[in-house]
Structures are given as structure tokens and as C-alpha cells.
Amino acid sequence: MVSLYGFSCGELVDCLDKLTETRLAFWAILMCKGAVWMLVEQLSKLRRERSCWKQRRRWIRGTKIRTGHVALVGEMVRKEMVTQVFGDMLYCPESGCLEEFPSLEVLKHKIILSTKPPKEYLGLNNNKDGDQSSSPKEKDSSDDEPENDEKSDSDDEDSDNFNQKSGAAPEYKRMIAIHAGNAKNKRLRHVLKLRSNNAVRLSLSEQELEKAAALHATDVIRFTQKNILRVYPKGTRVTSSNFRPTNGWIHGAQMVAFNMQGYGKSLWTMHGLFRSNGGCGYFKKPDVLMKVGRSNEVFDPKLPWPVRKTLKVIVYMGDGWRLDFSHTHFDTFSPPDFYTKIYILGVPADEAKRKTRVIEDDWAPYWDQEFTFPLRIPELPLLRIEVREYDRSDKDDFGGQTCLPVSELRPGIRAVPLYDRKGQKFKSVRLLMRFQFE
């Protein structure tokens, strides 16, 4: 069973696309190698850093190498590249493909390769990825806006199933621990009900996930109990914006792909989720998403669940802006006018938004306001906090943000540090808050 709720995953997407001239093949190989070397260097550095102070903590770095678009790179070259770069860090199951996921102890300090099993000659005469370069280029400046394109960022450029037979060399195929596929050209519910002999990874676009969550929510959750689900942004997010990740998480998706350069509310939410478990990079999936009832029923996020817990949040005051910002950053001729917004992100019935009053002309605003949030599924929500500076004539200025897993909140009075738009912690800015559970 897949008990990981989320884990850090390095992804190399489209090293080069549609190379058709032999003279460019070597350049393509070098680019792919360079990208992999950069990733491994970072992994090795992180491994060394963590080993000195978290020797007993189990951690995983799943790495997915996407070289399928480099049409002239042969599978033997890929095999050589993978073995040379990753060495004994690469996890290769003895059976050639995982029948079930091993324990975290077995995977400690290992790289897991997950991609589509290669076809004979890598389909050199195939040209089935035209959709990768023909999607419409439309403006996309927000985190959450209507989705209307069909461009795919899936692992699989055709309609092959997870159990496809391949004429590929067995040495390279054996390195692929988790076979990948997508729902393209297939009935979505049929894919979710797939009963494979091997553990697999399914990729869905954000549109496909929304459809699946609306029509087949329990099938999605049941699928993620034994397999890995990856959700990726729509192709027209040309400005590197992101979609709301919580819809994937509450349905058990272990991998929600992000544009890490797309700063905004969605990325802040992701930062908050991965503060769980000491920020080590992975954490256990909540039991509510893993349980199977006596009648084979599983959790359904849309059901009207009863309130199980109540979270009370008191926002006392904030301070530190005068130390981290210039005196004219917010208002040229007067101190700032701060207010705080609080969000609960989780199942639809738990989601809520509250706001404090505006405190005018004060670098250390004192609110002393209490907010109550009834929680139906308290294992899943995130508490997102954002401070804004009120502006009568223009858009309110950003004053800091943070996001915290509700399940890891410690009751009592806390000095909560705030972060900038890129997720970097401010040196001095804090909110004094109190958390209580009833």
C-alpha cells in the first residue's frame, strides 16, 4: 500500500523535443546528462547535509527522468547514463518491476526511477507528440483560473496500457521501478479501476483530476491506496502559474507537480504541506485516506461528515516589519495599515476564510481577534495565513504569509514567523497567535 501522502520528486521534463537530425543527437545526450548531473549533485549535497543531523530519519527522493522526447537517444545510452550517474543509489527491484511498494527502510537514500517502459527503437519513426508544440498560447496570470486546454504533460504519448510489452533491452527496463502511464484516449473510470499485477504511477492533468474527483472520487482514493497518482498543470500555464493542489491531496494524490518558479498562493500551500514531519521531504498519508470499510467503502471528501474537532485561532498582534522593510515601503508618508487573512484549506465542507479588522498607522498592529473553525476531517486541512497592508487607492500590499498543517499545530501561544512571496523566511516579522482545539 502507498502510505506516503507526499514526497519530494525531482523531474527532468523535455530535455530536448523532436530532434530530427543525427548531428544534434550528441548534443541532446550532453544536455540530458548535464541536467541529470545537476540534479544528482543537489541530491548528493542534500544527502550529505542530512546525514550529519538526521541519520535515523528515513527520507526518499523520487527522481523521474523524462528523456522520451529526445528521439535519437537510444535506450542503451540512457542505461549507461543512468548507471554512471546514480550508481548504487538507484533502486532496481529484483523482479524488474515493483509488485508492491517496499518499506521506507529499504528505500532509504535511494533513487527511484519512474517512467514509461521504452518501446523497441524508442519509436523513432513515431511522431505522436505533436500536441506538445501545438497548444494555444494564452495568457495565464493567476493561480486558479478556468482550464480549457487539452495539452498533455503526461508520461505517455500514446494509449498504451501499464502492462504493455516492450522489445526494449531488459537492462534498461529493469531499472524502471515504477511503470508510468496516463488516461489519454481511455475511459477515466476504467483506468482508475485498473487491476495491475505491478504497482504503477498514473498521470492526470488538472482537468482530468477535476473530472475524476467530481464523478469518481472514491475510485481515485481507492487507486491511490495501492498506486501512485501524479497530477500536473495544464499546458497553457505559460507564465508558470499553478493550480490549487488541495484537490489532489484530499483525493490521495502523492505527486502534485508544481512550477517552482510560479510564486503565489498555490506554491505557498505546497510549502505549508511539506513543513510536515519536520520538513524532511515526505510524510505519512493520513489514515482516513487509507482505510477500507467492511463493505469495501473508502473515504469520500464530498459527504456531509459530522464535525469532529473545532480549531480556535486568536490573532493577538504582529511585529518586525519596521526591521525588515524600509519606512516608505508600504506608505510614503504614514505607517502601514495592516490586517490578517486566515484560510482553512481541506475538504470542501471544512474550507473557510476569515479576516481581522484593519489597524491603521501602526508598525506593530494589535488585533486580539478570535476565529473559530469547525473541522470535519481534521487530519487533512492546512491553515494559511496572509498579512496585507490596506491601500485605499490601489491593490493592497503584501506583508507576509505562512501555511501550516493543522494536524501539527501545537496548542498554546506561538510566535509564528512569516515568509515572503518566494517562501523565504523574514528575519524579524512575526505574528503572536494562539491555537486551541476542542
From TrEMBL:
Compositionally biased spans, kind Basic and acidic residues: 128-140
Keyword DNA-binding (UniProt): no
The reaction(s) this protein catalyses: a 1,2-diacyl-sn-glycero-3-phospho-(1D-myo-inositol-4,5-bisphosphate) + H2O = 1D-myo-inositol 1,4,5-trisphosphate + a 1,2-diacyl-sn-glycerol + H(+)
Alphabetical GO biological process terms: lipid catabolic process; response to stress; signal transduction
Any one GO MF annotation of this record: phosphatidylinositol-4,5-bisphosphate phospholipase C activity
GO CC, alphabetical: plasma membrane
Any Pfam family the entry gives: C2
Keywords: Cell membrane, Hydrolase, Lipid degradation, Lipid metabolism, Membrane, Transducer
InterPro entries, per the entry: C2_dom, C2_domain_sf, PI-PLC_fam, PLC-like_Pdiesterase_TIM-brl, PLipase_C_PInositol-sp_X_dom, PLipase_C_Pinositol-sp_Y
Entry EC number(s): 3.1.4.11
Membrane topology: Peripheral membrane protein
Location relative to the cell: Cell membrane
Domain PI-PLC Y-box: 203-289
PROSITE patterns given in the database record: C2 (PS50004), PIPLC_Y_DOMAIN (PS50008)
Name of the protein: Phosphoinositide phospholipase C
